[in-house]
Amino acid sequence: MFCLNVLVAGALNEDVRILLEFKGSLSDPDNNLHSWNSFDSSPCNWTGISCSESEVTSINLYDLNLSGSLSPIICNLPRLLELNVSKNLISGPIPEELASCISLEILDICTNKFHSMLPLKLFNISTLRKLSLCENYIFGEIPVEIGKLASLEELVIYGNNLTGSIPGSIGDLKRLQVIRAGLNFFSGPVPSEISGCESLQILGLAQNRLEGSLPREIQKLQNLTSLILWQNFLSGEIPAEIGNQSNLELLALHQNSLTGSIPGEVGKLTRLQRLYLYRNELNGSIPNEIGNCTSAIEIDLSENHLSGNIPNELGQIPNLQLIHLFENMLQGSIPEVFGQLNQLQKLDLSINSLTGKIPIALQDLPNLVDLQLFDNNLEGAIPPLIGVNSNLSIVDISANKLVGTIPRHLCKYQNLMFLSLGSNKLSGNIPHGLKVCESLVQLMLGDNQLTGSLPTDVHKLQNLSSLELFENRFSGPIPPEIGNLSNLERLLLADNYFFGTIPVEIGNLVHLVAFNVSSNRLSGYVPRELGNCLRLQRLDVSRNGFGGPLPTELGELVNLELLKLSDNSFSGEIPGSLGELHRLTELQMGGNSFTGTIPLEFGQLTALQIALNMSHNNLTGQIPDTLGELQMLESLYLNDNELVEEIPASIGELPSLLVCNLSNNNLIGTVPDTPTFRRIDPSNFAGNRGLHVWGPEESRPPTGPNGTTRTSWMKAGSSREKIVSIISVIIGFTSLIFIVSICRVFKCQGTSFTSLEEDQMKGPGNVLENYYFPKEGFTYQDLLEATGNFSETAVIGRGACGTVYKAMMSDGTSIAVKKLKSRGEGATVDTSFRAEILTLGKIRHRNIVKLYGFCHHQDTNLLLYEYMENGSLGEQLHSSKRSYLDDWNIRYRIALGAAEGLCYLHYDCKPRIIHRDIKSNNILLDELLQAHVGDFGLAKLVDFPYSKSMSAVAGSYGYIAPEYAYTMKVTEKCDIYSFGVVLLELITGRTPVQPLEQGGDLVSWVRRLVRDGLQMCEIFDKRLEISSKRTIDEMSLFLKIALFCTSASPYNRPTMKEVIAMMIDAKEVSSSSPGSPTSETPLDKDAPSGTYRYIT
């Protein structure tokens, strides 16, 4: 007995020595391993240690904030069965000496910073049952030796940089139950040999570059419950043999290039719960057999080319909660049997060619939250009792042919946030229930035949950010109570019969961005209080009966981009204060009774591009020479005034001018003979008795820019003028409000903030609960302490939506906390807050800032982000301090990383996302100077049916695409333009906007220097260490890419995929050496789907 005890004690002492040496290779800032010490001769009581018969068998150091390296000394523990160091910060290579852990059954090093290839010797551990290497920086290929791990049951390697094909030897693993290998760079086909994994239950290969067709041999995997192959390049048809996998519960093949029809054999999958086939190229009809999938909860077949009728059999699936069939070519009527789906929460059939009436039985669905049927050909009335039995949050039935009245009970339960019934033929009044629907954020009723007046109790809609009633038959005055809508951002009342004056209370709407009351019967003065709406960007009061002088306070609206005052009875002199509107791109003042001279200050309106129209007034004096400063101006209308003297030569030099009408004035002299005026039809100078057109050569047909005669050129020019006029009349105030959330935000005082890390298996949907699940974590009090009560010393950034603080948590980790402005401080908090959490919460991409969670406490909204050690690109690039960015290769890597992130948003999210505020300050840099795109306060989900309206004007000054100013339409090409500006920043080192004497805006400055023939290297940032011709050639190619991205016309700009291809080509063209991006700056657009996240 004594000898046995001595042997045991000796073994324990040896284990102590090994463990302490292992600890020595780690850094433990939180002292979590304080129990590991030489004074305790028995390690079995140490943190993370488990023993069997007094010998160490398991080491579990999960989430202890450890760093350092992994010492293979641990393999000297002879009976070690489990080694788990997951969710730490351990780095370096995976030691090949781990192969000497001859008894090891579980190896879990997930979520660390290991950076190496897979050691071949690792596959000699024949006892391994679970191998988890996920979320590291492991690169290279999976070796064929993986087939030697005969005992392997789980292979978890997702979220790395692995490349090459999946070896067929994986089929030798007969005991393998789980493969999770998504979010890598695997290419080639899905190996048919995988059918040899006869025990396989979960096959996750999503978000790779796999191609080819689905191997029919998969049918042999009779134990398979989850087949997860989304976001690859798979093609061909879905094999009918899929129906033989009777245990399948999840089939996720979305975001591929699958063709053909959906096989009827899918109806054999009676255990299937989630079927995701969206965003493929499937055609044909939806098979009736789909009704046999009686266990289905969610079915998403959207964004394909499906045709025919919606099968009635879909309505026979009793537990169905989600049906997404939008953006197909479906015809026929909505099945009446859908009214029997009592569990249905979300029904989206929008963007099809459906006809007939909305089934009245839909009003009886007790769980319906989201109903979207927009952009079809539906007729008849909206079911009158809709909302009585269901707690609706989103209803969009716009762009149909519906008649009748608006149902009374849509907001019975006060949860309706988004209601869009526009572009129908609805009549009658707005029902009382909507007038007191305090939950409403967006009310879109434009383009109908509605009547009545704006009620005085409209002030009860305190959450309303957008009120769109344009193109109806409303009448009466605009009630002063509208000034109590403190969150209102868009007020669109154009094309109605409103009369009276604009109430002075309109000045209380400090968040107002767009105000359009054009084409009504309003009169009186424009109230000077309108000057309080400092965020106003679009103001249209045209075609009314307003009179009197313009208030000088309009010059205080420095964010104004469009100002339309035309066709009223304004009089007096034009205030020179309007020259302070430096962001103005269109100014329409025609058809009034203005007198006096054109203000000299108008020469300061250098952003004017669409039009400057002062025609049909009583203006006198000379045309100011300062108008020659308007280098971007395309249309100038000064006709039908009393202007005198000569035409300034500077106007004839305006390079962008396409339309110039100076007719019917008292001008004299000769029209300057310039290329600009040569393409203007002479009729635009008629009615000036003392004006001579083009001197002695006027009988010669002058040539246009392409050698055409003036006659042929002016046909095109005249057409252009008509187009500009049509656009200015029709476009109006395009919607801006962005509603992305349909649930209450959770409170967190005394409870944990909500985490985003446990939604791997979650399915689709827009409700916040689908993404955020409470788990033990930080409380609001923790965040207060970590930021010093949100002290100024903790501030690391400020933006339009709020302030960002660095929070040092009690466990030693650093996170970034974004505190959004309260309602009294800034923009609509709820809209911005929900936009960002809903957008970022669905995204998992290495070049997108990671959102850990969110917190709502009383009136405080907090977003918790991954902390970025090196701040923003803008800070690094434009700070006076020495930067890390003096190396062009680093800038290249940052540009490529940001491009990858943006490309993912544009192509691989579901719905697709437009960032809307790409700028250098929104590109954040981690400790390795890898780029992460962030700040989604303005993000637009372009495919969200309720994203037709946005909550704020897109972008930051200097980055906004020129067409946005007059179309207010946000497209991916707006992001491309902004990204081009960022590229110019990286190349030149200049900020996007400089004082005029230093060149003005960056795009114009670069184009002017290029046009003047300046050497490329003179444009480059002087701080860059450019030591080779290869670098100069590469930067020159990048400059061309940037200019391509910032083309004035959106149609001439590339896509983000094309931008990335050009960036890669620029690297390859400049050098054939392996200097292109490494595995740490991937060239792939691989990251989880925007809407759904599954295990990979």
TrEMBL record:
| InterPro entries associated with the record | Kinase-like_dom_sf, Leu-rich_rpt, Leu-rich_rpt_typical-subtyp, LRR_dom_sf, LRR_N_plant-typ, LRR_R13L4/SHOC2-like, Plant_RL_S/T_kinase, Prot_kinase_dom
What class does this enzyme belong to in the EC scheme?
Answer: transferase
Q: Which residues form the Protein kinase domain?
A: 790-1069
GO annotations of cellular component type: membrane
A UniProt-annotated Pfam family: Pkinase
Q: Which GO terms describe its molecular function?
A: ATP binding; protein serine/threonine kinase activity
**Comp. bias intervals (Low complexity):** 1070-1081
How does it sit in the bilayer? Answer: Single-pass type I membrane protein
SMART domains membership: LRR_TYP, S_TKc
**Catalytic reactions on record:** L-seryl-[protein] + ATP = O-phospho-L-seryl-[protein] + ADP + H(+); L-threonyl-[protein] + ATP = O-phospho-L-threonyl-[protein] + ADP + H(+)
Q: Which UniProt keywords apply?
A: ATP-binding, Disulfide bond, Glycoprotein, Kinase, Leucine-rich repeat, Membrane, Nucleotide-binding, Phosphoprotein, Receptor, Repeat, Serine/threonine-protein kinase, Signal, Transferase, Transmembrane, Transmembrane helix, Ubl conjugation
User: Where do transmembrane segments lie in this chain?
Assistant: 723-746
Subcellular localization is given as: Membrane
Gene Ontology BP terms: maintenance of meristem identity; regulation of root meristem growth
**Enzyme Commission identifier(s):** 2.7.11.1
The record's region (Disordered) falls at: 692-713, 1069-1096
Tell me the PANTHER family matching this sequence: LEUCINE RICH REPEAT FAMILY PROTEIN, EXPRESSED (PTHR48053), PROTEIN KINASE DOMAIN-CONTAINING PROTEIN (PTHR48053:SF159)
| Similarity comment | Belongs to the protein kinase superfamily. Ser/Thr protein kinase family. Belongs to the RLP family.
What is the recorded name of this protein? non-specific serine/threonine protein kinase
